[in-house]
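User: Some background: our group keeps a shared notebook of sequences we're curious about, and every so often someone picks one and asks for a predicted structure to add to the entry. Today it's my turn. The entry only has the sequence so far, pasted here. Could you supply the structure so I can complete it?
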Amino acid sequence: MLALYEHLIIFIRSIFAFILLLGIARILGKQTLSDMNFHEFVTAVIMGAIAANLAFNEKIEVTHLIISLLVFTGTSYLLSRLNLKSRKLRLLAEGSPTVIIEGGKILENNLAKNKLTLDSLNQMLRQKDIFNMEEVEYALLEVNGQVSVMKKAKYKTATVEDVQKKVESNPECMPVELIMDGEMLSKNLELNGISDKELIQQLELQSKNISDVFYAVKGSDGRIYMDYYEDQIKHPIDVE
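Assistant: Of course. Here's the predicted structure to add to the notebook entry:
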């Protein structure tokens, strides 16, 4: 009879732990379900351990475990909100992408810093349907551990625009982020020889300030793309 009671308690605690974690995942948002960055990985591991103890460890009081879950949920949620407002904090908490192939050349030091071997790199490229390293112009190791690849022009899938014009023989440039969250990325401009005065002049022609820009990037074709906080979209297709 005692054993049956203990089994029932574990069953109830397990169901409660599952429902609680499900609710926490809903609170933290869809990003929790995607490939995780550093702070999301740490949060998931800790919450998983706490939930396991909540389900099976009868020596620890339920209230103590719930308090721990609430603390880590609140911390993770607060950090996610702060990351939206501060790029510096976002870089500190999540890290930044690392270029591992530039201009078709492998950057060995960057591979070593990220504990990435050539075998691992080749495996990641094969998952992108790239079996020949020669096809790659740029490759970045993203903060979620995935590799993003920009192929050389001659290896890209042809589009209608490509058919209508002659493909340039010069290799494309890596896109350069110029403004993010209303702040100019001066270091990016300096490293890529881009004049901040020229950028400000372009904004003035559109009666805009740097603080009005949510995101600005110099694309691989050399043109500058800007997205403003006020997009003038009257009827958004999807609103969360």
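Suggested note for the entry: The CA atoms of residues 151 and 157 lie 9 Å apart. Residues 236-240 have pLDDT under 50 and may be disordered.
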